[in-house]
Amino acid sequence: MNTHESNPMADERYARGWAKLKEVDGQAGENVIDSLKDIAPDFARLLIEFPFGDIYSRPGLDLKARELSVVAALTAMGNALPQLKVHIHGARNVGCTRQEIVEVIMQMAVYAGFPAALNGLFAAKDVFSEEVPA
């Protein structure tokens, strides 16, 4: 049973999360949600509500700081390449420069090792190569 259908607070949380997801990740975020519809639609809803409806919507950090933090964390994890690419796109969407992203990824060499930083840099290179020149 889906408990969200009759819960106005859950609907507000979902709407807030969906708006924030689109603001941060744009089409890439929507693609992730769409890819879950046939296997885990409830997980897709949780992904919208918790990270984006609850955490990204909090005051205290702007979206640039949040996305740079996510890029750092995913780089350090070393096992989340698709998610890292989505969030590098997100970082660019919210105004992070290529240099800021590269510097954060390079910083992870100190804490997560050179292999994690190298993989992060190659992910950034892939994302940057997809960008349309201004």
> What's the SSE pattern?
HHHHHH
Oligomer: single chain
Overall mean pLDDT stands at 92
Domain count, please report it. 2
Tell me the radius of gyration.
16 Å
Distance between the termini: 48 Å
Shape: globular
Number of helices: 6
Category by helix and strand content: mainly alpha
Q: Residue ranges: pLDDT <50 for 5 or more in a row?
A: none
Count of extended strands = 0
User: What fraction of the residues are assigned to beta strands by DSSP?
Assistant: under 5%
Describe the structure.
With 134 residues, the chain is an all-alpha fold. It has 2 domains: 1-58, no CATH class; 61-134, AhpD-like, CATH 1.20.1290.10. The chain is 78% helix and 0% strand. It is built from 6 helices and no strands. The protein has helices spanning 8-36, 41-55, 63-77, 81-93, 98-112, 114-130. Helix 1 packs across helix 4 (81-93) and helix 3 crosses helix 5 (98-112). The radius of gyration is 16 Å and the shape is globular. The chain starts with 7 loop residues before the first helix and ends with a helix. The mean pLDDT is 92.
Name the descriptors.
single chain, mainly alpha, 2 domains, 134 residues, 6 helices, AhpD-like
Give a quick precis of the structure:
By secondary structure, the chain is mostly helical. It is built from six helices and no strands.
Topology:
Elements: H1 8-36, H2 41-55, H3 63-77, H4 81-93, H5 98-112, H6 114-130
Helix pairs in contact: 1-2, 1-4, 3-4, 3-5, 3-6, 4-6, 5-6
